[in-house]
């Protein structure tokens, strides 16, 4: 039987994809005590990066938000694996970190990252409210437009 978080994902029309394999020398997540740290995830769909380029230089803020949302979906894939398939174990989204590929004069990184943050709250309710950092970068791996990492407290 699916748990309440799986049911919430279904209500939101989200099906968690097969996780993308790491593209370098790292693991997708680490569990230490009651914390799960999920490595940065790009906006991959079906094993390919779906949103590439730079926000405000070919991509709109809305496209960046959609990319951040997809990144968070990919974070959830690894979080679910870390929780042995049970996302109901998540007690708190502690922190999200966002990286937005953009030109040097772009200053709306926080709006882009809201794509991930808003989904965290939509999925986990009050437990989805989190601390956050968002920074602009000149480029990301494989020309991804956005990358999102996360830290979660689990039961």
Question: Can you offer a commentary on this structure?
Answer:
It contains three helices and nine strands. Helix 2 packs across helix 3 (109-124). It has a single domain (4-20, 29-154), classed as RutC-like (60s Ribosomal Protein L30, Chain: A, 2-Layer Sandwich). 39% of the residues are buried. Helix content is 30%, strand content 30%. The protein is of the alpha/beta class. This is RidA family protein. Residues 7-144 form the Endoribonuclease L-PSP/chorismate mutase-like domain.
What characteristics describe this protein?
155 residues, alpha/beta, 60s Ribosomal Protein L30, Chain: A, 5-stranded mixed sheet, two-stranded antiparallel ribbon, 30% helix, RutC-like_sf, Endoribo_LPSP/chorism_mut-like
Looking at the overall shape, the CATH architecture is: 2-Layer Sandwich
Question: Helices and strands: which structural class?
Answer: alpha/beta
Shape: globular
The overall pLDDT average reads 96
The N- to C-terminal Cα distance equals 19 Å
The name of the CATH superfamily reads RutC-like
Measured as a percent range, the helix fraction is 25-40%
Briefly, what is this?
The protein has helices at 4-11, 61-82, 109-124; strands at residues 29-32, 35-41, 44-45, 48-49, 54-55, 58-59, 90-101, 131-137, 146-154. It is α/β, with parallel strands linked by helices and 155 residues long.
């Amino acid at each position: 039987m699916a748990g309440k978080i799986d049911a919430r994902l279904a209500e939101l029309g989200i099906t968690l994809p097969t996780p993308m394999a790491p593209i370098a020398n790292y693991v997708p997540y680490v569990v230490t005590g009651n914390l799960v740290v999920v490595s940065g995830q790009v906006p991959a769909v079906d094993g390919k990066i779906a949103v590439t380029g730079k926000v405000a230089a070919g991509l709109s803020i809305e496209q960046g938000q959609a990319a951040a949302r997809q990144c968070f979906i990919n974070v959830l894939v690894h979080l679910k694996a870390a929780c042995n398939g049970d996302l109901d174990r998540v007690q708190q989204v502690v922190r999200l970190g966002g990286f937005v590929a953009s030109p040097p004069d772009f200053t709306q990184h926080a709006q882009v990252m809201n794509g991930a943050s808003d989904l965290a709250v939509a999925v986990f309710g009050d437990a989805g409210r989190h601390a956050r950092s968002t920074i602009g970068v000149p480029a990301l791996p494989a020309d991804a437009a956005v990358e999102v990492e996360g830290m979660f407290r689990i039961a």
